[in-house]
Amino acid sequence: MVKLWYRFVEKEGIVTSEADYPCTSLERVEAFVMRWKASGAAERANCQLFLAELCDLLNTPRPEPATPDDAANAYVFERSVTFNNGDGTTSPGRIDLYKRGCFVLEAKQGADKDDGGGVLSTVAKERKAKRHKGTATRETAGWELAMMKAKGQAENYVRALHADEGRPPFIVVADVGHCIELYSEFTRTGGAYVPFPDPRTHRIMMDDLCKDGVLERLRLLWTKPMALDPSRHSAKVTREIADRLARLAQSLETSGHRPQSVAGFLMRCLFTMFAEDVGLLPNRAFTELLNKLREQPDAFKAAVEDLWRVMNTGGFYSGFMTKLLRFNGGLFAEAHALEVTRDQLDFLIEAASADWRDVEPAIFGTLLERALSPDERHKLGAHYTPRAYVERLVLPTIVEPLREEWTATQAAAFTLAKQDKTKEAQDEIHKFHNRLCHVRILDPACGSGNFLYVCLEHLKRLEGEVFNTLADLGEKQTLIESEGVTVDPHQLLGIEVNPRAAAITELVLWIGYLQWHHRTHGDVN
């Protein structure tokens, strides 16, 4: 994901010079980390100083002095808001740090666990008893509950902002000197803020600031947060790929191949391209095969059909000199390839050169369907349902009710854990996960799967949060124990009169599912 963001940053010219994107020395970062890791349990005393020094580390301006006019307070500490209590009354609130168009930040400061070692003198015992406890003791259920409540508090601040200001794309929850959590909502239309970039890596620990890419992520959060939206780059890549496929489809049809045969052939090609980019096939193996065949296009049909036959059954493939996985979804049951010219092979090589991990499934299905349809090809890239529009339906009807259940489940589980009822807390989370894995969603006119894919992505995000919470509650073998019980495309059902669109829907869902697995775990085997 980090590479994806900075490919987008570089391509779009967001960073134009070293002055726009300055470097922070590792020594400076390490000094900041050491200084603030020693702090604790004093949110009021430390919050603003920590955030101001973080701005210095990021080479971004510090917050500005507040004025009496909140409309002018676009980047300030203690930004005031007014809550509408729903009964005709109002109450005041203050955002710890607000930057309009970027984020709402809620800060806490917990205390580290007591090391408990040694025999203490009377004076030492008295000092220990007087130590600040802060928000909660870190790495405990109470601290997790406090961080969850802090996120909810930040969401309330977002809702209390004046409509003219718009919703910021990020919520930030900081435990001063310990960690920073990021939650995004790039549509800015009222959807749920979800862990960014995913539930596994949204919490940035202080030591993580020394890792490659982390400071740059925070710097963009402060300066150009929408540049962190991977779908902006994905949409561009998707349109480019669909355009290449459309030109190839037209060329193949002009050569005398039937549109239905062309569609099936190209779907097998594109999934093979995707498979090599996510590790289901050896890296660049298919692309290199196409390049070899460029000098003898007459051998293309036989060579590719051999590959697809092995992909359908699994086993050793001499062309790659390795054993291949079995692709049992039925896509390669008909291992039929078309004869191609050198020019048509060049179109395929051009499409294969793209990074298929960046394809945006939420629009890819529509564009692919049009690329393969002679009647719709002229509309390619011009008219499709944007992801933000899809989420306006999906979020309130499916995702938000599930998230309300999840928030209640988390609160109940952490409350039980605070009472030393860890097993009961884990059981609460497992019950929710079981429900999540048995949700069934039907789209009675699924088209090419846009709505179903967005549903799948949000369900997978929720599942990632479930696994993280189980880990926080001490369950270390979550993924192993959940094998065979997971959110997957079988939960998404669709009805469609167009057989090709139905096939594309299934393809889109599996591509999306494998993309999620690859981003989250690094491999798909």
Structural overview:
- This protein is an alpha+beta fold and 525 residues long.
- The protein is built from 17 helices and 11 strands.
- The chain has helices at 2-12, 26-37, 43-57, 122-130, 141-160, 214-223, 230-254, 259-277, 285-293, 300-313, 342-352, 361-371, 387-418, 422-437, 450-472, 478-481, 499-521, and strands spanning 75-84, 90-99, 103-108, 170-175, 179-184, 194-195, 203-205, 315-317, 322-324, 441-443, 492-494.
- Strands 1, 2, 3, 4, 5, 6 and 7 form a 7-stranded mixed beta sheet that branches. The chain has a two-stranded antiparallel ribbon with strand order 8-9.
- Helix 5 runs antiparallel to helix 13 (387-418), helix 8 (259-277) runs parallel beside helix 17 and helix 9 packs antiparallel against helix 11.
- The protein is elongated and about 75 Å long.
- The relative contact order is 0.09.
- The model is unreliable at 1-21 and 115-131 (pLDDT under 50).
E-strand count? 11
Distance between the termini: 19 Å
> Into which percentage range does the β-strand content fall?
5-15%
Average of pLDDT: 83
State the major sheet: 7 strands, mixed
Structural class comes to alpha+beta
Overall geometry: elongated
Please tell me how large the radius of gyration is: 26 Å
Number of helical segments with 4 or more residues: 17
Helix content: 40-55%
What's the order of the H and E elements? HHHEEEHHEEEEHHHHHEEHHHHEHHEH
Pick out the low-confidence regions: 1-21, 115-131
